[in-house]
């Protein structure tokens, strides 16, 4: 059986990076919510 999580910097950026979030309405909502909450970082590193 293969592991479910296979770290890959490029894939990670493509799926949860800032630009990926900005592309969709839902992603922009996520950013707005994190800003509203006062998260130290709006995009997890």
What structural keywords apply?
mainly alpha; about 45 residues
Write a structural description.
It is a single chain. This protein has helices at 9-16, 18-23, 25-37. The protein is 60% helix and 0% strand. With 45 residues, the protein is mostly helical. It has a domain at 14-38. It is built from three helices and no strands. The model has no long low-confidence stretch (mean pLDDT 95). The N and C termini lie far apart (28 Å). The longest helix is centred in the last third of the chain and has 13 residues, at 25-37.
Question: What's the short story on this structure?
Answer:
With 45 residues, the chain is mostly helical.
List the helices and strands and how they pair.
Blueprint: H1 9-16, H2 18-23, H3 25-37
**Residue ranges: pLDDT <50 for 5 or more in a row?**
none
How many strands appear in the DSSP assignment?
0
Q: How far apart are the termini?
A: 28 Å
Global outline: elongated
């Amino acid at each position: 059986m293969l592991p479910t999580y296979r770290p890959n910097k490029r894939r990670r950026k493509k799926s949860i990076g800032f630009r990926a979030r900005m592309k969709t309405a839902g992603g922009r909502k996520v950013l707005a919510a994190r800003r509203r909450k006062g998260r130290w970082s709006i995009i997890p590193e």
